[in-house]
Design a protein that fits this description.
Chain lengths: 206, 223
């Protein structure tokens, strides 16, 4: 093994040892820590939302503030924004007493603000967690055809089971990975009860 | 203490750009219209509660009327368009009973359940969705021997009328009151004839096909 190879191996070993020694979030029962995470969010629309926007790649963001209230248990607030869009060369827009066909652009975006609780299955550098969130969801849908735009904005209630992983790679800093199954009760003109699967990846500090 | 502070600053130095970028994305204006939409929309209106199964026959104009900036009554030569509309109605179970010549409208009401008007809307510039309704060149119920004016029992979508717009109106003659017949179906295709200006062009006939396709309820056998 070359000298560079040996140095690289040593660095990996030291990094792993350091991570292994790291104390995870909400690990000590006496500790009342807090965690803040910021993540990019990609999503997959499901059900009615999928019929509306298709399975196009979605972009969004996710923000999390968690307070450790007991060993391996946290409560907090989470917020997200997600965006879905699709262009159809031949689409349909339904209006009261009218139907329009033609090239159609559709878009839906959502803002959620939820209270959430999480339970961390293990301590240490790698902490899988499961959680449940509930709160409000604001959504905005837009349908455009040549010469016509139809917009619908609605508030709703949102619930989301979620699970993820905190990978602490240096003390107090972790890679944040999370999957969230988001259900909302918004009643838009073209559809109701949007559902989507959100995948978050970002950084967390605690 | 100092070490902790330095670590905090470094951490936030890492996270802040990510957070700001995320915030900027979250604050993006939703006024963005997305991709350019080029094409002809076809919008069809249906009178609420209209029972198309109660109609069996129709009277149709032999030539489409033309509404332009002049305001003078005129017609366009588009036999293919008239034939296409008639063929679609017959395919849906309606029987063609009368063909009305706009140059010699009947003095008495025609013997048909429905009237079919076809209009070429050619304003020099985009106009309001209903600008043609009050135009003197717009065919009145008198074209089919009826008094009064047309009734439109719906709210119009804010779709501008462009040069080369096709309008097809189907009205209920069987139930016409003293105020005039109520229109039960409308096909509006803004800009369908913008290419060569002909209302027999493929784009216009395609708009007619789409209008009927998206109106499956328009059938003599549909309640």
């Amino acid at each position: 093994m070359s000298r560079i190879g040996r140095l690289a191996s040593l660095a990996v070993l030291l990094g792993a040892a350091s991570a292994a020694r790291a104390e995870g979030f909400a690990e000590a029962s006496y500790q009342s820590g807090r965690l803040i995470s910021v993540a990019w969010e990609a999503g997959r629309p499901l059900g009615n939302l999928r019929d509306f926007t298709g399975a196009t790649t979605a972009w969004g963001t996710h923000f999390d503030l968690r307070l450790a209230v007991a060993r391996r248990l946290s409560v907090g607030l989470a917020a997200s924004w997600s965006w879905y869009s699709r262009s159809l060369s031949a689409g349909t827009i339904e209006l009261p007493a009218a139907t329009l066909t033609g090239p159609v652009y559709r878009r839906a975006q959502f803002l959620t603000l939820r209270a959430a609780a999480h339970w961390y299955l293990t301590g240490g550098a790698v902490q899988p967690f499961v959680g449940l969130g509930a709160g409000g969801a604001w959504g905005d849908t837009l349908q455009e055809a040549p010469g016509l735009a139809v917009r619908s904005r609605r508030y709703g209630v949102g619930v989301d089971p979620e699970g993820g992983l905190l990978v602490t790679f240096r003390p107090g800093v972790a890679l944040f990975l999370q999957a969230r199954y988001q259900l909302a009760s918004n009643r838009f003109t073209p559809f109701r009860n949007p559902t989507w699967l959100a995948l978050d990846a970002g950084l967390a500090v605690y | 203490m100092r070490q902790g502070l330095a670590m905090g600053i470094r951490t936030w130095g890492t996270l802040l750009p990510v957070g700001l970028a995320a915030l900027a994305q979250a604050c993006a204006s939703d006024v963005t219209t997305g991709p350019d939409l080029v094409g002809v929309p076809v919008i069809t209106y249906r009178a609420p509660g209209a029972a198309f199964s109660s109609f069996g026959s129709f009277a149709i104009v032999s030539r489409p009327a033309r509404i332009d900036a002049s305001g003078a009554p005129a017609t366009v030569d588009a036999p293919g368009l008239v034939a296409a509309v008639a063929a679609h109605l017959e395919a849906r179970g309606f029987q063609q009973a009368v063909v009305v010549d706009p140059a010699a409208p009947p003095a008495a009401p025609v013997a048909a359940d429905l009237s079919v008007s076809i209009v070429a809307l050619d304003p020099p510039q985009p106009q309001d969705p209903t600008s043609w309704i009050g135009d003197p060149a717009h065919p009145a119920p008198s074209l089919f021997g009826y008094a009064g004016s047309w009734g439109y029992p719906w709210t119009w979508a804010p779709l501008a009328v462009l040069p080369g717009t096709l309008l097809v109106e189907v009205a209920d003659l069987a139930g016409a009151g003293t105020g005039g017949p109520v229109v039960v179906w409308v096909l509006l295709a803004p800009g369908a004839a913008t290419g060569g200006g002909s209302y027999d062009a493929a784009g216009v006939l395609e708009a007619v096909d789409r209008g009927f396709t998206q109106s499956s309820y328009l059938s003599a056998g549909t309640p």
